[in-house]
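Record pair follows.
FIRST:
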Amino acid sequence: MKGVSPLVATILLIAFTVAIAGIVSLWLTGFARTSTSTIGQESERQLICSNAALSLKNVKYSNSSSTLTGIIENSGSVAIGNISLQIIYANATTQKFELCLFGNQALNCSVSNITLAKYGDAITFNISTSSNYDKIIATGNCSTRAEISASEVTLA
């Protein structure tokens, strides 16, 4: 039985190494392209979202109707969508309200459809809730939020 000559073995080893290096190079090029694109998109989103802001104004609670009303306003310079309210109660439980536009008011629904397109755009909300709330938080896309405590809510 004869073995492979040292010259052929060396050539095969070099060819195998070059083939593996080519495969790794192709993978690495694709990985770098994908990573660069993902990082670029996230950077752009963060840059745009750095100009986003929400405000809660004129928040009132009515004991007679057990409703919380107020205004959510875009106080930034970019559009903010997916507006929702979260209420944190005194017993540390939370309730989230997705807000949808019905007429000229934002009411609770299953999926938010409200976008405040520019600075100063505002929507009035009207939701039913109990009076033992501790905080009210308005949120939107871009991780924007506006928060007020129960002491800042006017009783109507």
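SECOND:
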Amino acid sequence: MPTLLVERLGLSIAQAGTISAGTIVANGLGAFSAGFLLRKGIALWVVISIGFGFMGAAAFGIFNQSMPAAAVAALATASLGVTGILAASIYATAPSFAPKPAMLALTLGMVVQASHLGHVLGPPALGLCVERLGWSSAPALFLAIACAGIAVAVGIRTVSRAG
């Protein structure tokens, strides 16, 4: 996020840092709201689909070269806020996916590893994409990730209905 704001939009490092801090707060609020959504009875697969769907769609605005800096900041903040629901909702429902109570730690470990895989591979994948094809290629990567996330959500829906 800071690289996009500084390199492409010409903001100062301080401005980019402030906006990035706002996106982190929004992500935390999104995580907090996951419990509310799940308590309201919204299915996990729907929550995941919303998070990934919004992320994929928002990328087209965030990386649009004609978008003003304020709009990019607002859209990125909203996107990170909405995607904040993903990890929290998955962690909250993970116990229901453990085959038996004794395997809860293993189930949560797999969730953590999958999450960290995205943290490790995501930034270099975006960097490679931007380095080779420019900022305008970034939405394609986010769209691919969104499609993969929605496919996982559909798989969760199938497993949930079978159980």
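COMMENT: The mean pLDDT is 92.
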